[in-house]
Amino acid sequence: MKWSKEARAHIISGCYAQWGINNKKVLDVGCGDALVSEIISRDLNLDLHGTDILDYRKKDIKFKVMESPDRLPFESSSFDLVMLNDILHHTQNIEGLILEAKRVGGQILIFEDCESMFLKSIDLVLNYFYCRHMPCPLNFKTEYEWIELFKKLNLNYVSGKPEYPWWYPLRHMVFKLN
Fold first, then answer.
1. How high is the pLDDT of residue 113?
2. pTM, entire model
């Protein structure tokens, strides 16, 4: 599983690099074990901070536990940008979490799974082994649904296009919100 996290981290870094986020103060919401966070931080030379509803870090990054699933434990405008990497389908209140991300950081970067039957069939199992206590409501959205949500929240967006190794089985959508 470590090799797939490393591959995903480099895919995410490649997506975000196109938007010139190097050397920024960044919050990674839902950072999990922080392996992906650490690789992205190293690839893009970020001042990285993490937060999650549980603390199960395996890497030593600056971290605060979230007080609730849709409230970030930081002052307004604390960060240059906020990353939401593969976590929005783990929350019931996607709108609330996006608005919280906007509150604490000016820009938001979203890397989220494309909905598929394959993904739904493995997501519960993989997340069970990754972190047994992680919420997993399978709250996936289509690209159209994401765009409609951004419009509803009055957020401007730009889409990115991930590049994958030939063997990587999942597909993602990438957005930068202002």
1. 86
2. 0.89
What's the half-sphere exposure (Cβ side, CA atoms, 13 Å) at 69?
Answer: 13
Angle at 82 between CA 48 and CA 127, to 5 degrees: 85
Statement: 2-177 belongs to CATH 3.40.50.150: yes
Rounded to whole angstroms, what are the CA distances from 167 to 14, 15, 116? 17, 18, 17
Strands (E), the chain: 25-29, 47-52, 62-65, 79-85, 105-113, 157-160, 172-177
Q: What is the pLDDT of residues 2-40, one digit of tens each?
A: 778 899 999 999 999 999 999 999 999 999 999 999 999
Domain boundaries, the chain: 2-177
